[in-house]
Design brief:
The chain has two domains: about 5-255 and about 460-480, Aldehyde Dehydrogenase, Chain A, domain 1 (3-Layer(aba) Sandwich); about 255-440, Aldehyde Dehydrogenase, Chain A, domain 2. The protein is built from 15 helices and 21 strands. The strands form five sheets. The protein has a seven-stranded mixed beta sheet, with helices on both faces. It is about 40% helix and about 20% strand. With about 475 residues, the chain is of the alpha/beta class. Bound molecules: nicotinamide-adenine-dinucleotide. Nicotinamide-adenine-dinucleotide binds near residues 155 and 180. It comes from Pseudomonas urmiensis. Belongs to the aldehyde dehydrogenase family. It holds the Pfam family Aldedh.
């Protein structure tokens, strides 16, 4: 079977450069010998062409009929949902998310487009009476212009969707760069968008490395705003460059999300919440719980049951229906997980189970979920984002100590608590510095129609998703008129 070579989408067409030296092979982490598709990397010139096309298309798109935008977004959402099985399998093959979870991600992507199809038609604007006689004031929002969208690999279709959909909805044109590990879902999404009736240049997609294509996007004077999701270190670089160019930024970065388990928790519920939040999607979620803070009265029972459930998880091929935990995304991330397991042991934590590579003929990046106890708050496995299924359990005395431990981090994305105490749950909801707080639910797993984002080193700029996305994708205009 011949493997297709695909390319970037610029100014209304997929552009083949014919440069055989710049080929990216998309490999399956469940079977790294398998090349799913090949992609031609964009260079500086094509990046500039995409940005110029988006700039040219921006004025007309900003004035476009909202019904046109609504119909286009609806078309995209419908097609994603209609092709959910096929897209979920593609996602599982390129990223390693198991099919069940991949289906959830594809649905989320489709529904995000359909949500913003409705949002395009929402009446908005405010009228005020002036403090000056016979003067009327109108306040309304206008598109930002050209949006640079830079996405990570761990949600290959949902994150692009929840950025592209509001960008287009609010009248912006887009230059989108997916992560190099997941070009297939990005290409499939671009192909659907290419048939949605958008004028040429409104949407562009560039396949290529962050250090060249991504860097050109963030430096370009023709990009008005950047919506980025990825690591904290890349986010910091982007923030600095964007500040030089006076660009608006929205950065969603890492996390070290805590889950508190109190003595009064339902044990089975606590274990289920911990297991799902920490290990599902191979722990490769920015909202995954990687620190569990457990009070002394339930600690030993909780750890014993969590270890039992963790050992029973099946790690394997993302396409197999019996798999609970798919492979780690690539060899670099696998190496990172193994290194942190070594660091955890060296620093004196106890590895209760997992933390090993499962050797296999295909060379798949299978890694058993790791559970550490006897963790101290200064240990690296407790403080640093690992981005894998490596969990550090900290024992504390009571809720007050648990709360202080949960807050002891530079990050602030998601935080959870499992308790039957209304008082502690309410205190936690009100006082946690995280942007998203979960009570008796996993730290990972959020809705698509409400704000998403964090605080501290996890996020910068206004919230993504829901109606709040308007804040980033538009600017506010205030007009005064003498009657
Ligand atoms: P990454 O920072 O390595 O890459 C993210 C994107 O930035 C990629 O498209 C990459 O090509 C691009 N990039 C890299 N260097 C660049 C540069 N100098 N200029 C412009 N673009 C550049 O992150 P990753 O490894 O793809 O993703 C994992 C990280 O993403 C984790 O830290 C995770 O916590 C975070 N994440 C956060 C959220 C959130 O909403 N907070 C969601 C998902 C993932």
């Amino acid at each position: 079977m011949t493997i297709p070579t695909k390319s970037s989408y610029v100014d209304g067409a997929f552009v083949e450069l014919g440069n055989s030296l710049q080929i990216l092979e998309n490999r399956n982490p469940s079977n790294p010998g398998e090349v799913i598709e090949r992609f031609e990397r964009a260079g500086h010139e094509l990046t500039e062409q995409a940005i110029a096309a988006a700039r040219r298309a921006a004025p007309d798109w900003a004035r476009s009929n909202p019904q046109l935008r609504a119909d286009a977004l609806d078309f995209i959402g419908n097609e994603i949902l209609a092709r959910r099985e096929e897209l979920a399998k593609l996602l599982a093959r390129e990223e390693g998310k198991i099919v069940r979870e991949a289906l959830g991600e594809v649905d989320r992507a489709g529904r995000s487009f359909k949500f913003y199809a409705q949002e395009a038609l929402r009446a908005e604007g405010e009228k005020y009476q002036s403090v000056r006689q016979d003067v009327g004031i109108d306040v309304f929002t206008q598109p930002m212009g050209v949006i640079g969208i830079i996405a990570p690999w761990n949600f290959p279709i949902a994150i692009p969707a929840w950025k592209i959909a509001p960008a287009l909805c609010f009248g912006n044109t887009v230059v989108f760069k997916p992560a190099e590990l997941v070009p297939s879902c990005a290409w499939a999404l671009a192909e659907i968008i290419s048939r949605a009736g958008l004028p040429a240049g409104v949407f562009n997609m560039l396949i290529g490395p962050g250090r060249s294509v991504g860097d050109s996007i963030i430096r370009s004077p023709d990009i008005d705003a950047i919506s980025f999701t990825g690591s904290e270190s890349t986010g910091r670089q982007i923030a600095q460059t964007a500040a030089q160019g006076m660009k608006k930024v929205q950065l969603e970065m890492g996390g070290k999300n805590p889950l508190i388990v109190l003595d009064d928790a339902d044990l089975e519920q606590a274990v289920e919440v911990a297991l799902s939040g920490s290990f599902y999607s191979t722990g490769q979620r920015c909202t995954a719980s990687s620190r569990i803070i457990v009070t002394a009265g339930i600690h030993d029972r909780f750890v014993a049951r969590l270890a039992e459930r963790t050992r029973a998880l099946t790690v394997g091929d993302a396409l197999d229906v019996g798999t609970d935990i798919g492979p780690v995304v690539d060899d670099r991330q696998l190496e990172q997980n193994l290194t942190y397991v070594m660091i955890g042991k060296e620093q004196g934590a106890t590895l209760v189970c997992g933390g090993e590579r499962i050797e296999n003929e295909a060379g798949a990046y299978f890694f058993t979920p790791a559970l550490f106890t006897d963790v101290k708050p200064d240990m690296r496995i407790y403080r640093e984002e690992i981005f894998g299924p490596v969990l550090a359990v900290l024992k504390v005395r009571d809720y007050a100590e648990a709360f202080a431990a949960a807050e002891d981090t530079a990050f602030g994305l998601s935080a959870g608590i499992v308790t039957r105490s209304l008082k502690d749950a309410e205190h936690f909801k009100r006082n946690s510095s995280a942007g998203m707080v979960m009570v008796n639910l996993p730290t990972a797993g959020v809705d698509y129609h409400v704000p998403f984002g964090g605080n501290g080193a996890s996020s910068l700029g206004s919230r993504e998703q829901g109606t709040h996305a308007r804040q980033f994708f538009t600017r506010v205009k205030t007009t005064y008129q003498l009657a």
